[in-house]
Every structure is written in structure tokens, then in C-alpha cells.
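Pipeline run #58 for the internal structure catalog. This entry was flagged by the ingest filter as a single-chain record with no existing model, so it goes straight to prediction. Upstream metadata was stripped on purpose; only the residue string is passed forward. Reviewer on rotation: M.T. Logging verbosity set to normal.
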Amino acid sequence: MEMRYAAVLIGIVLAIPTLLAGCAPNPVSGENQLSLMSEYDEVAAGQQADQEVMAQNTAYRDASLQAYVSRIGQMIAAQSDRRNLPYRFTVLDDPAVNAFALPGGYIYVTTGLMAYLNSEAELAGVLGHEIGHVCARHNVSQASWGAVGDIATKVLGEKLGNPELISTLTELTLRKYGRDQELQADGLGAEYLARAGYDPAYMVNVIATLQAYEQFTGGASDPYRDLYSTHPSNDMRLQQLIAQARQYGPGSRDPGHDAYLHRLEGLRMPLGNGQTVQMHLITARPGESFETLAQSSRLRNNAAMHLRLLNGLFPNGEPRPGQLLKTIQ
């Protein structure tokens, strides 16, 4: 029964001439996709949405860090399929572990996410993923299909007498499309990393870090990251994307581990109850462990495991003598 309704839904949507007139070649694949917004309108929509985002959020007050992220972002954007766009990169003063993109090239990364990354290559991977969304016009496509969903719900609700079912079917269709978009953005991010000279395998590090964060915090599972196995380094789909990206180069650029960590010196993080702590760097001494470091840390609740997470060594890694480490003291 649901298959019949879904078939009717697709048939009616594709039969709407005004929507078909809105198809345009995808900048990445070259295939026609629904697009009810020109590139000019896309950039204008991004500018307006950026004003709304910044009205509700605060840019991190560190001009040096903002300039650093923008430099890395522009370098990756220059390797993208839409390098002509006026990309803008902003670090938000937000403890949430997040990054997102708006139409037209407006990209944001939070201090919360940056705290858990451990190299310039990983930051480039995050930004490359978001640039991939922009290049494939995923925001525009979602907005266009959202309009289709509104029309389809109204039309089919009248024809089939069950608007709730049609609305649910439309939502499920769009949700799956979103998961496909995330997978495509990973592939594009890996490709842009390779073009810039980084090893595209650093996309694995990013996904592993996000999965480890969810495991540590007990957060809700992300359907997008459920596309990959618990250990993304063993996931066949992700490894295929990386292998495809390596055709652009072997990844000879320094991943910038220590250089990235030095940019985080003094990064402010909320501790709770209105308290704020700062991130500091130390060099691990022989015999030092995360358990001993936890004794002097201001982190609460399972501090040793939290330090492992911050340093990309979750769940059971230990520091090497001479290794540069992030601490909260």
C-alpha cells in the first residue's frame, strides 16, 4: 500500500511543469537536479541567512584564530568545483560540537568542534565537507524539494484523502536524500583535501572523532554517521571515497598537528555553572599518563577519558614522551 502511494507521489511531483522547468545541471556531477534558485539568488539567500545566524550567535573573539580558519578554508575552497563563490568562514563561540554551511558559501565551525580536532588536516577535512555541501548545492536542493513536498502534500492530500500519510512519505524521502548528500559531501571533502596536498584519509579521523564524542557524552546517534561502521577506518564505503580522492595526489602536505594545537592555546571552553576554562598545551614527560594529568585538570567527571578524547586517543590511548598535548588546568 505504501509503495503505491509513493509511486503516485513521485509521478505527480515529476509531472508538475513549473518544477521541471526548475531543473539545472549540478555543478559537481553535471546531472540535472531540481533547483528553484539561481546562483545569484543562492548567494543572496546565504547573505540574508548569515545575518540571521550572526544575530543569534557570537563570533569567537580571536582575530588570529578567525584568520587562520579562513585561510585554511579559502585554500580548500580554491580546490573545489565552485571556486568562484565568495566563501566566508566564521568560528562561532559555541561549545556545541558542530559545523554547517549556508547557500552561497557561508561556512561556520564552532569552538566546541575545534577543541576536539587535532590537526590542520582535520580542520581542512571539516571545512572540505561543508564546502562539498555548497558545491553540490545541497542547501538549494533541500529548499527546492521542500517546496515540492509542500505542493505534493496539498495535491495528494486532496486526491488521496490522506495528507498525513503523504507528509510522512515526503519527509522520509527527503531524509534519505539528506543521508546521500552527507555521503557525497564526505567524498568531495576527501577530494578537495587531496587536491590541496593533504592525505584524504584525515576524513576518517574527523568521523572517528565525532563518533568518539557521541560515545563519550552518550549523545543521540547521528543517522549520517551510522552510514559508517563503528570503526570508520574499516568501512568499505569510506575507503572507496578516499581511494578515489587519492588520484589527485599522494597527500604529501604536512598534516600540521603541532601547528594546529598551538592555535588552540588559550581557547576558552565553558565548564558549567557559568565557569569558563582555557585550553593549555604541555609536552608529555616520560611515565606521564592521562590519569596523572587528570589529577590537575579542572575537567569534571571522567577527566582522564575526556583528556583522551580531546587528544584523539579515545578510548584507551596514552601519551608518548615528547608529545604535545591539550590539557584543561
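catalog note: The first strand starts at residue 23 and ends at 25.
catalog note: Residues 1-21, 143-157, 165-177 have pLDDT under 50 and may be disordered.
status: ready for reviewer M.T.
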